[in-house]
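Students often ask why we bother encoding 3D structure as a string. The short answer is that it lets us treat folding as translation between two languages. Here is a chain of 497 residues written in the first language.
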Amino acid sequence: MIIKLYGYVRTNSLLFYGGLFGVFFFVTGLFAPTFLTEVLNQVNQNLLAVFSTYYLYIGLISVIAALVILCLPLRKQRLGNEKPAYSYFSWVALLYSTGMGSGLLLRAVQEPIYYLNNPPVETANNKVTALQYTFFHWGFTPWAMYSLFGLIVAYNLYIKKIPNLLDAIVPYSKSKIVKYVATLFIVLITITGVIASLGLGTAQVVKGINYALKVDYGNNFLLLMVILIGVVATYSALTGINKVIKFLADFDFTFSIVLMLFIALFLNFNTFMFQTVTAFYNYIVHFFEMSLSLGNYKTSETFTQEWTVFYWAFWLAWVPFTGIFIARISKGRTIKEFLITTIFIPTIATVIWFSIFANSAFDIINTGDKTQFNNVFSSLFIFLEHFPFHFITFFIAGLLVLISIINSVDSAIFVLGMFSDNGNENPSKRHKLGWGFIITATALGLTAIGTSELLNGISNLLVIMALPFSFLYGSIIFLFFKNIIINKEASDPISKS
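And here it is in the second language, the structure alphabet:
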């Protein structure tokens, strides 16, 4: 029996350690939620006292590195010889739904209104500044983080022809220990990032149901929804990318556009254009200052830690599985096409999305309660109630949140399955089932602490877990540039692979 157990752990070690990680948060979340919250909070405070500025530099470096690659001859190379497997629409839909679909719904109204009521910096136009900081947190930086990691993996897999995903992540190290530890870190932070999406997104769905039906189903219903979404996401992952995952992404993307256009019908177009263009211009011109909290854009330490650092940690937690998933669906694209489509197009789409919802919300609070959108989980549904056919839009918004969560979770399950199944691009059902169970159980543990503490607990865990991964991420970027520029590896990538 002991020999069999040892053999299982040895051949399925990533699943085993991922399971231990999940068991810890499941047990402590259910039976010692106060202890869990206090420990995460204390560790997080200690880290932020030292590493807040470091997180800001990581975000800025990611954008600069991506722009540098766009200027190199390397941009003309194609990621593999095959034709692209997905149309542009499905490709962008998969990017949207996997990258941040549920987050855009969660924060569509609450975040810009928070910045309006609590300006990050002194400004002549609080509405423009509110939009500017929303663009900053959801724009170039997160997509550059995703894209850069995905590009490096795709480059190694499809241009250098490294046959194994695990080797493609850290191809410049010959040490098996380094590769294994790197992979283990990536697995653990991937679990962290996806349970954040599962926990926060599910809380939004439940709050929406409670608000629409004027009931309070309580925390047990929230836990039940986590289980239900986990089961559906696992089933979706089992079918593969070309079936349920792609269908859900196309549906989510299409109806998100429909919902956005419906809200746009009620906008004051001239005001919308002025505030959007001005905010985007300021965002571009002052990007460096905003990224490092300098000069006129120096924010308070509290704002920097609770918003910018939290977001950069959140995106870092999503970098591994989102980046690898992007690499997996981008075979056949040129590097230039890859970077433009995975950074600039999502950023422009995000700018339009937030501008439409935010400008509408600005108009609503001008003549109403300025605090009505304070709750991150219910703000979208309160907002929709101000428009016609709100019961229909309630249903659409709730469905979109559900699908976005499912698409994020099933993509993570698929990528984790690739890791534990020796880098197989089409992992076995056994591995996907195992990760589906681990993710669902871990999310249950964190969600059990209650919605009032959920955001705080997940925020702390993300900042903590993102730190060791950020060191790995930085070294991966450095070694990639060293080999394509100093060693001129990219001049003949196939012969040097």
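Translate back mentally: Residues 1-11, 490-497 have pLDDT under 50 and may be disordered. Keep this in mind for the problem set.
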